Amino acid sequence: MPEPQPNKSPLLEIQGLNIGFETNRGLVRPVRDVSLTIFPGQTVAVVGESGCGKSVTALSILRLIPQPPGKVLGGRILLEGRDLLGLSESQMRSVRGKDIAMIFQEPMTSLNPVYTIGDQIVEAVTLHQGVGTRQAYAIAEEALREVGISDARRRLHEYPHQMSGGMRQRVMIAMALSCRPKLLIADEPTTALDVTIQAQILELLRKLQRETGMAIMLITHDLGVVAENADVVAVMYASRVVEFATVEELFDKPQHPYTEGLFKSIPRLNDTRTRLDAIPGMVPNPARFPSGCKFHPRCHRTRALAASQPGAASAPVPLNYQGGGAALPPVVEIVSEGDRAKVMGVCVSAEPALLEVQPMHWGSCHFIDGFDKAPDTQPVSAHRREVTAMVIDGGVQQPMPVVVPVSAGEVTR
Amino acid sequence: MSIEAAQAFSNPEAMLTATEPYPPKNAPTVASRSLLRQAVLDTWSSRLARTGLAWLALLVFFAIFAPFLANTHPLAMKVAGRWSSPLLHNLTPADVMLLIDMVVALVLVATRPLSFVQSVGLVLWFTALAIPLTYWPQLDTSGRFSGVTAPPGVNTLGSVIQGFLVFSLILAVAAAAGFAGWKLLQPIVDGAHLSSLKRVWLVARALVLVGLIIWGLVRLLLHGYHSGRLHAQWTDIVMGFDWWGIVLLPLLIRPPQRVAAGGGGAAVALVALLIFCPVRPPENFDYTHYRGLAAQGKVESVIYVPIPYSPRDRLRDQPDARLTPPGRQHWLGTDTNGSDLASELIHASRIALSIGFVATGISVVIGIIVGGFMGYYAGLLDLLGMRFMEIFEAVPRLFLLITITAFVEKRDIYLLLVVFGLTGWTGYARFLRAEFFTLRKLDYVQAAIAAGLPRRSILFKHMLPNGLTPILVSTTFGVASAILYESALSFLGLGLVDEASWGSLLNQARAAGTGFIPWIATFPGLMIFLTVFSYNLVGEAVRDALDPKLRKRD
């Protein structure tokens, strides 16, 4: 495993980011203490269920969170050493699109229906590159060609409704990349597309990354996408990063019970089970987070440990338990959505920090081996995997098994 | 799960080509159409809308060619062996500008050098030219140069040039001050992505735009007073400002259109100057002059227009002319003053159309600005704006109009345009505010912000065109209601003072001492009804075209 190269300075550093939203039910904090570092040319995947705070993190990098009600409670977002949170709005506008570009989940609604796609690309190009309209059209045409749109010259003068979803996502990518950003934030870029188009779009992103050397922050809930694309993975759960590792480390040795649960819930072809494993329960509402480790009401590891511990549990503890850390016995009983379960007391009373549980592998769970003695370091990894190179070379590596993708529903039948 | 297995699972691309040809072969090609163009085509496809548009087209025809349809001045006349054309000689600046506008529109329609939106913009631009030009000082028939109200000794052309120079000086000083101020502010203001010149240009452009809008409104209001209370020299200086406006306005438009609009505008201005300087129609013409000449047998031959009576020709040489019922000589009869009713109706269509379009246009612009800012910024601005609008709306519009117009002695069309415009904007503001509330959260607006586009582009380019649909629909109904309100005001005797409008003619039908006069009630009433009805037909079709979900059929 390659060590982080100290001579390479990070492109984007998120340090201890905290985001809050003022609602009429009080302050809601969808992002807490998130730290993330992205190096040039690297793909960092942020994985998690809906509502875990990954999109809010991405939007806050571009300062797209509506303020009010949203506000930054703390932390820094450094782009090449410059704190984005301290910039004026006009300075921020010159960062958006030029240094950091973003593509959105829904290609069907991300293009303005009243302008041709050429007009939309050209507007950004003339703004950020200071070229004339004619030259901007040439750049836009080239950008469309780069993303694999044939007959680019004619396509420039078409309206979004004349294109399919996959084509529109290509246009979005062309628009985002026409200004050669250093960082591309892709917020679930393939979620709204069908599987074959997904593969094309991801391959396109990889190709463009190789050509331009940009970094990608890939937000997704699809572990297959992560395995294909990511160098480094941050797993988010309930507003925090719970596990951070290189993609190989994470897939080989997942440490956090939530990550384990995610892997178990992927359907496999050579499997005879009739039901998929699912993580019980729901992602907690940010307005009513459980106390302690936010995952404890759904955690299989703490339940298994509690079941093996002798001794009866105390009276049921509420979800938003407010008592001090030491007051709880080793095993407590919790009530969550009508379900009673025994869990370890420490999970209810204390929230685990994100510690380096193994070299270059950060986890946040009381019951990871050696968690007590793990050093509290910044989760930073400049890792770039070699798999990418093997994919480029084709034939050099072992031929991959060809798998026809099927939906989860077909597997479970 | 190992990484290879995970990869294999989501790796269907091995059996795919990454870029399939697009579009598929033999796919039908659909021509690209802008939304506006599609809406116009859809509107046109409705038969009822075509009927309504036909009537409106007839009205536009009346408005443009009014002097050629009903005029006491003969089209051509031979006196003492010489042919002359009193009609052409007595055309007003407004007459000529409307004709120029029409020619421009026809040329644009025929040759299509610009896109649909640009063409509409260009016609509007030439129409805007007409407003200052109607006040251009004119030579009277004796060839002496005098403004409409210039006291003896004031050289009107001189004061116009003076105004032009004064305004140029102010502009130069403002530009220099702006540049110096910006140089001082430069360390504080971030100009990372804008060259200094570009930023100065942007600021100056915005200032000029705002200034011109405010200036135009002040100008329109001032006009009501200029004849009596304001010194004539000032009004002429004002005209000099207007000419600067004509020169500067094209600079506000984007480059490809700028050249066309600027060049065309300059050409029209030059032509108008050449026409108006030697020609000056007198304010009050003795219309009996021609009939007198004819009676004396001095006219060797003469060609009249179809209705040989001007609307203000009160037939003073014919004592029995008052209240003639419709007949061979006066097709629709005469009114209580003895003027020909048909002629008055034709000339009054100008008032109806301009009240409808200009007043509604002012309302829409105010509504868009107020509603747009409220919808985009929301929060406190929205709260205050809504309360202000509610207070404003608490007073019924007709009462507001009566209250304002009742205190103005010299009510001319420009006063009415401004007053109508200032009282009718709340509905448009509400519509746009509601649209912007939904628009600002949409993906493409977020994407535009994420692309680093400036706020004016997000507001006016990405949000406004998508939020205009309900405004376009309600504009057509707004035009109809403005015409109705004008008729109501005129009927109550609070309309235009020196010109007959449909409403004031209707009022004459019940004039004191004469009882009810059926033909004066019927024909103006019919004009009002048909016009309002037509606008409603068109409005329905526009709504169907823009919002297919509301369509009744299919």
Determine Rg of chain A (CA atoms, Å).
23 Å
Tally of DSSP helical segments of chain B:
21
Shape of chain B: globular
Characterize the biggest β-sheet of chain A: 8 strands, mixed
Output the strand order for the largest sheet of chain A.
Answer: 6-7-8-3-9-10-14-13
What does the oligomeric state look like here?
A: heterodimer
Helix content of chain A: 25-40%
Largest interface: A-B, 70 and 50 residues
Count all strands of chain A and give the number.
14
Residue-averaged pLDDT of chain B, rounded?
74
For the termini of chain A, the CA-CA separation is: 40 Å
Total of helices of chain A: 14
Strand element count of chain B: 5
Helix-strand sequence of chain B:
HHHEEHHHEEHHHHHEHHHHHHHHHH
Give an overview of the whole structure.
The complex is a heterodimer of chains A (413) and B (554). Chain A is an alpha/beta fold. Helix content of chain A is 30%, strand content 22%. Chain A has helices at 54-61, 89-95, 117-129, 133-146, 152-155, 165-177, 195-212, 223-229, 247-252, 257-264, 300-308, 345-349, 387-393, 408-412, and strands spanning 12-23, 26-38, 43-47, 70-79, 82-83, 100-103, 183-187, 215-220, 232-237, 240-246, 331-336, 339-344, 355-358, 361-363. In chain A, the strands form 3 sheets. Chain A has an 8-stranded mixed β-sheet with strand order 6-7-8-3-9-10-14-13, sandwiched between helices. In chain A, α7 (195-212) links the parallel β7 (183-187) and β8. In chain A, α3 (117-129) crosses α4 (133-146) and α4 packs across α6. Chain A is elongated, with a radius of gyration of 23 Å. Chain A starts with 11 loop residues before the first strand and ends with a helix. Residues 1-6 and 387-413 of chain A have low confidence and may be disordered. By secondary structure, chain B is mainly α. In chain B, 64% of the residues lie in helices and 3% in strands. Chain B has 21 helices and 5 strands. In chain B, a hairpin with a 2-residue loop joins β1 (76-79) and β2. Chain B is globular. Residues 7-30, 135-156, 223-234 and 276-281 of chain B have low confidence and may be disordered. Classes of the chains: A alpha/beta (413), B mainly alpha (554). The interface between A and B is large, with 70 and 50 residues.
